[in-house]
Specification:
This is ATP-binding protein. The protein starts with 5 loop residues before the first strand and ends with a strand. A hairpin with a 2-residue loop joins strand 2 and strand 3. Helices cover 28% and strands 28% of the residues.
Amino acid sequence: MIVWDEVHTERVCSAGVLDVREVRARVRRVLERDPDGFDLGDVDLLVCEIATNAVRHSASGRPGGGVWVTLLLASGRLRVEIQDDGGSEGSPLIPAQASAWDECGRGLLMVRELAECWGTLRGEDGRHTVWFEVVR
């Protein structure tokens, strides 16, 4: 069991369509405070992929939609959780077949490859939380 030393949670939303760059920037602002930080390039990419999926496939992409972002930090470990606004038909998953030339469907494949571990949770309210963990 991991005991998290720090937990940061905030809602990121917009009057228009949610800007994924804003989600990434808010995560980065928290993580830049740590001088022995994580690979922000990888974290940026993973956050963008998950937030983009929320915008494309759930009510998070509708005007006024958003996501809840939670950062959990422990000694040498970071967990990022992004919860959408619900309303999607299916569950986040990695396609059975995705090639390097596909325009869609590779985001969670990248998450799987770059993260130490990752997963999805579906709440009773229909909202999905996609999470990943990275280590220093």
